[in-house]
Automatic annotation (TrEMBL):
It comes from the Bacteria. This is Helix-turn-helix domain-containing protein. It comes from Noviherbaspirillum pedocola. Pfam families: HTH_31 (PF13560), MLTR_LBD (PF17765). One of its GO terms (molecular function) is DNA binding. SUPFAM superfamilies: lambda repressor-like DNA-binding domains. Residues 7-79 form the HTH cro/C1-type domain.
Length: 269
């Protein structure tokens, strides 16, 4: 039996039939819902539920997994786990946006970091950043940056990015591949689809690399920038995922330990 099958069976057997308006019955040999009842609630066949629990290969769309989660009255954590086991993207997670309180907490976290740091949402909009990041990325996160402050818009539509980012063609190409990896099928839905369409329309480079279908994991490593006043700066990039908010990621740029003098001391904030 697969982990997915074990999880579904365990939660099916925990459901009180009375909580769903079903009669308890006199011939129930096991607790919880029968497979027939779960199949009816999900709009699938009994065979499908049986094979799923047995770990046999079955076709399961994201919508079917969502109906399964709803029928079993799963919590948010349980629902997320079910979708990960099924290797599917939760359709409801696409529109989930971090609450204002979450952004406030992330902002406080970034302010406490003695290095340039920023947080990106699902569309790679910067939703929070510290003063050090605003100083470093003044054409993106600073006072001269766009109001929307989207990383891809900055990289491909802001002319200064090409001279600011070391080896712009390679970094930009990799950024497109990393974005595609994170989008998955969600890239077909708004607002991601609208952003992708805009970038393809406004940037021939983005359009060419997007059509290439490259996929890369978002990696750390050394990042170089040509700052208008400080000259060339080198950092080691680290990206962190926030617990409970998989669509929010924090990027921290740690000072190159081999640099002469401390850059951090010269950055406001």
């Amino acid at each position: 039996m697969s982990e997915l099958g074990k999880f579904v069976r365990a939660h099916r057997e925990r459901i009180d039939p009375a909580s769903l308006g079903l009669p308890p019955g006199l011939r129930r040999r096991t607790p919880g819902l029968r497979r027939e009842e779960l199949a009816l609630l999900c709009g699938v066949s009994v065979t499908w539920v049986t094979w799923l629990e047995q770990g046999r290969p079955v076709s399961a769309s994201a919508k079917t997994i969502a109906r399964l989660a709803e029928a079993m009255r799963l919590t948010a954590a349980e629902r997320g786990y079910l979708f990960r086991l099924a290797n599917k993207v939760d359709p409801e997670a696409k529109t989930a946006a971090p609450a204002v309180s979450v952004i406030d907490e992330v902002s406080q976290l970034l302010d406490a970091i003695a290095a340039p740091a920023y947080a990106l949402d699902r569309q790679w909009n910067a939703v929070a950043w510290n003063a050090r990041a605003a100083w470093l990325f003044e054409d993106w996160l600073g006072e001269t940056g766009e109001a929307q402050r989207n990383l891809l818009r900055f990289m491909f539509l802001q002319p200064s990015a090409r001279s600011f980012v070391d080896d712009w063609p390679d970094r930009a190409r990799r950024l497109v591949a990393e974005f595609r990896a994170e989008c998955g099928k969600a890239g077909e839905d708004a607002p991601l689809a609208d952003l992708i369409a805009l970038l393809q329309r406004e940037s021939a480079d983005f359009a060419r690399w997007w059509r290439a279908q490259e996929v890369l994991a978002r990696e750390g490593g050394m990042r170089g920038f040509l700052h208008p006043r400080q000259g060339r700066l080198v950092f080691r990039q680290v990206t962190l995922q926030l617990q409970g908010w998989p669509d929010l990621k924090v990027t921290v740029l740690l000072e190159d330990e081999h640099r002469d003098g401390s850059l951090v001391e010269n950055i406001p904030g």
